[in-house]
Amino acid sequence: MLVLLISFASLIVLAAIGILVWANVGVMQAESGPLAKVRTNPAVSIHETPDSFILSPADGASGTGLVFIPGAKVSADAYLYKLSGVVVKSGLTVVVTKPILNLAFFDQRPLTTFTNAAPDVDTWFVGGHSLGGVRACQYAAEPDVSGLILLGSYCANDLAEVDTRALSLSGSADLLSTPDKIMDAAHLLPTATTFFPIEGANHARFGDYGVQAGDGVASLDSSIVRDVITAEVDSFIRTG
After folding, report:
1. Series of mean pLDDT values for 10-residue runs along the chain (240 residues)
2. What is the side-by-side strand order in the sheet with 44-48?
3. Can you give the residue range of the structural domain that contains 128?
4. Residue 60: CATH number of its domain
5. Where would I find the Alpha/beta hydrolase fold-5 domain in this sequence (predicted)?
6. Is residue 7 part of a domain?
7. Nearest 10 degrees: CA dihedral of 63, 37, 169, 133?
8. What is the reported pTM?
């Protein structure tokens, strides 16, 4: 019996080590060019904590915030440039989380872990890219959340009866969260959901981390995708 227990414990330890190695190898890092642009933008303030990156407008925030969750094995700072446009345009405070083990489904920390980082914000939206969007859907069911923003993502939990609203941005060239997959899961989203397909965008265009395996080829410039994200998120937040 003792030998069996030791063998079982050894298997658990080996499995845990395997997960740790897998989760930390091959993490897609932020591209240097877009990251430098946001870090040198005088209109945007960036504060890093152990849990997140916090983007806020340098000339004063609006009191509205977005907790944004990265896709699987994508570095959190790979989303700073894409999301900085709405920070400047809308005065939005954006908290980009650093998921545990770089995987959103391992991260079961409460939403307050991230909202507490911006105590001056009183209206919160949640959002995410890819697997991060799936986790954001779970947060969206909480009563204090004003809405859900999905970038190349869809829900696994049912929000159809939840009194909230959602914005779903997709890419026509996305071969991971394909347009068909997004529409197949559309019935899980709130009745008040706006769908906005971006012609020529692929999965990786929602961040700035280079080419992603299995993805389609984008024909739309990254800066234009940023402009679309900025305009659509700004419109969504303002029409609430």
Report:
1. 46 37 69 98 97 95 95 98 97 97 93 97 98 98 97 98 97 98 98 97 98 98 98 93
2. 44-48, 52-57, 93-97, 64-69, 123-129, 145-151, 165-171, 192-198
3. 30-238
4. 3.40.50.1820
5. 66-221
6. no
7. -70
8. 0.91
